[in-house]
Amino acid sequence: MPGACVVISEHNKIVCAKTYGYADLEKKKRMDLKKMVFEWGSISKTFIWVSVMQLAEQGKLDLNADVRTYLPKGFLKNLNYDKPVTMLHLMNHTAGFEEQLTDLRYLSGNKEYTLAEVLSSHQPEQVFAPGEISAYSNWSAALAAFVVERVSGQDYKEYVKEHILRPLNMKHTSMGPFWNDIPNLAKEKSKGYSFSGNKFKREDAMHLRMYPAGAMNGSVNDLLHYAQELAKGYEKGSILFHDLHTKKEMFTETYRSYGSDVGLSHGFWQYIGNSGILGHEGGTYGFKTQVWIEPEKERVILVLTNVMETEFCSDIMKAVAYKTHNNKKSIKKSPVIDVKLLEGDYLPARSAWKNVGKIQGGKEMISVSAEKDGRLCLNMPFGNKKMYYKHTGANIFVFEGASPEEKVIAFDVKNGKVCSMSFRLAHDYVPAKKTQGKIGSIAGLMTYMLGLILFLIYLITKIFVTLRRKEKWEWNHFFVAVSGIILGISGIAGMIHWFSVYSVVSYELIAIVIIGWICALTGIVSGVYGCVKKKNLKSSLLLLLFIAQISAAYYLGFLTMI
Fold first, then answer.
1. Which residues of 9-47 are buried (b: 16+ CB within 10 A; e: fewer)?
2. What is the pTM of this model?
3. Helical (H) or strand (E) element with 275
4. Which residues form the domain of 177?
5. Where among 266, 291, 323 does a domain terminate?
6. DSSP characters for 308-345?
7. What are the pLDDT digits (tens) for 102-154?
8. Together in a domain, 161 and 274
9. Number of domains comprising the chain
């Protein structure tokens, strides 16, 4: 099976270093702690935050200033709120941007686009007011890196190399999307895998366009050097900062969702159940990594695996973090509230809200219902899992039998309305509108698929009857039916394509949308013509069915341009 490297360091000395499994399953190459290179994934973001704090320390960057101060005029095109977006909002993932999943990776060639080009090509919509909702955002992190470029006057890769990598002697770490700046790095790199069914599948390497957000590749030792520097006691100073107070400020909490057991410190996540441990996780198609530091104990914990989305990282961290720390909070009982207010469907704030990507958010929708005994029942996506939570505080509920990241849920209620629900990590959940909830989503999908099936049945039947009885072909009905079939198939193709996540290609989705609109116009014109010309019930029914299918397609995002 694929393997892992686990390193624990205290006071700059390694106290535990273990390797498991294989770096290359096919060649039976075992993990090597000294030489092995991993994809670090979103751990890369911490280098952005360190860079930002360096520039803030120098007085070149104000964390509370509108980021448009540092960007080209008119660069941000999809802002929908008057409130400024600050660097702190980007660091806290509270800038309000929807998820951006199109064109995340280079699928061929090695031509690299600039950060400005990448960030300009597909700008996400701002769907929440800044500072109100936590929604993890790769695009926001990459935007922060672009600000670093603008303020420092250096290419982001060169800035990090000069101000972080070289001072820490990190000679086996690559910054760019193609990691061709370090000789032989690709040869030393572990192969990445995913687990599907009962076997491991080899995954292609990730070449991210928004590379600052998750494209770093490096050795275990390099990551250890970086983490050890961050874990040094505050009084000892730092190679990375001139001021003794800067690092302590960086690890000071800057945001926490209402009732959440975990907060953010200038982009660094607190570990669930132990706010004294800070760090970040990383996940790509073939790797899962974690780096955690505990400055009070000068402790570093690294867990790097070459298999996607494994629970191995989390299990090790739980064992280490909870062995020496118990962070049970004493929450005062508050008066019993009307739990009926909290009922409904909740969508992850980290979702695409304007196009076919809405399907992805729907997959992760959570339904909340009130029990007679005052407990809340969380019905996980489409009824696969149910959990029951007891009321422990003001709109705060706890399920002791759940995993640490699922133990607490809390609802931010203002003026008698639920604004958000904190659950798990990385992003809040927001109340779904009736049309966005489970009933609306199921109704939309059923209408869409029903249109496809009925038009297909009608067309096959009509062809058979026409050929057998040699009847005259009704071309207006034919165009309506064919338009409905193509519209249905193109939407299904769009859904399947979107679920590939890291391989979503904009021009393919745009093509699907264009095909959809051509079908929509063709079907409506043909249907209206049939109703006016023929004036019969069949023409009217076909047109009504097609309009229902178009409405469902629009609701599902199949007709919305990327």
1. bbeeeeeeeebebbbbbeeeeebbbeebbbbbbbbbbbb
2. 0.90
3. strand 274-283
4. 4-323
5. 323
6. TT-SHHHHHHHHHHHHS------PPP-PPP-GGGG-EE
7. 888 887 767 889 999 999 988 999 999 999 999 999 999 999 999 999 999 99
8. yes
9. 3
